[in-house]
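Backbone-to-sequence.
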């Protein structure tokens, strides 16, 4: 439990729920990123899976992004590339998965968490699911998640998020920009809507949904290469003295 988990469960209707958890606000260390990418990939290859619901445990935070403990432990460019490639692999697994992915966003999204919401095909959130791309505030930048976020909200909104890295945008802002498809006043209402849509999609034509997803993601075929190139940039920047000092200050501030 202290290291977190990724688990999946498929019901008799073919709804595959993939849940991740980490005690530090559902942040994602490298091992969880690898496990999440592999679990999504496996679900995509499972003939019994009709639709995927991506969710995290708890009620307050959907995902706090990268694990700061791992960021401070990175000592070489190769280690940095390996860590940030974890986010690239998850986003690409979501992109290439033939089934639709519904993201259940019960709370705040930070950094990589915004990337997960953006890489989903349909995001259903609560009114408390505020967002922030905090990467620049700790000396890096939203390089890996950037293409997914920009694809969903547009270049102008992505610029605003990336540049003003300390400002929270509320869930209504995220819905207006297209990151969220629906907003609900309570977790109960959100879950009812997630279940309704998942049930509907589970009875829909799988081949039609696969062709639709291919259409929606047209033009992203180069992301296998692009996101790894972006991961290399983050892996280099995280080694700088500026970034290491910024991360330590941020960790001290949040304790």
């Amino acid at each position: 439990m202290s290291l977190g988990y990724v688990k999946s469960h498929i019901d008799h209707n073919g709804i595959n729920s993939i849940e991740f958890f980490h005690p530090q606000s559902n942040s994602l260390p490298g091992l969880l990123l690898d496990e999440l990418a592999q679990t999504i990939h496996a679900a995509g290859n499972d003939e019994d899976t009709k639709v995927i619901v991506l969710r995290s445990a708890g009620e307050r935070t959907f995902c706090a992004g990268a694990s700061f403990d791992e960021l401070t432990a990175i000592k070489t460019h190769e280690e940095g590339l390996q860590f940030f490639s974890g986010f690239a692999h998850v986003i690409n697994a979501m992109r290439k998965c033939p089934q639709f992915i519904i993201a259940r966003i019960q709370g705040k999204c930070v950094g990589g968490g915004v990337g997960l919401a953006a890489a989903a095909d349909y995001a259903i959130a609560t009114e408390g699911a505020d967002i922030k791309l905090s990467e620049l505030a700790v000396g890096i930048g939203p390089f890996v998640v950037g293409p997914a976020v920009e694809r969903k909200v547009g270049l102008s909104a992505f610029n605003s998020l990336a540049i003003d890295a300390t400002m929270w945008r509320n869930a209504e802002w995220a819905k207006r920009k297209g990151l969220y498809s629906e907003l609900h006043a309570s977790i109960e209402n959100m879950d009812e809507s997630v279940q309704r849509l998942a049930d509907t999609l589970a009875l829909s034509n799988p081949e039609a949904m696969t062709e639709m997803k291919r259409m929606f993601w047209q033009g992203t075929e180069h992301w296998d290469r692009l996101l790894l190139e972006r991961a290399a940039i983050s892996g280099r920047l995280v080694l700088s003295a500026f970034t290491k000092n910024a991360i330590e200050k941020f960790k001290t501030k949040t304790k």
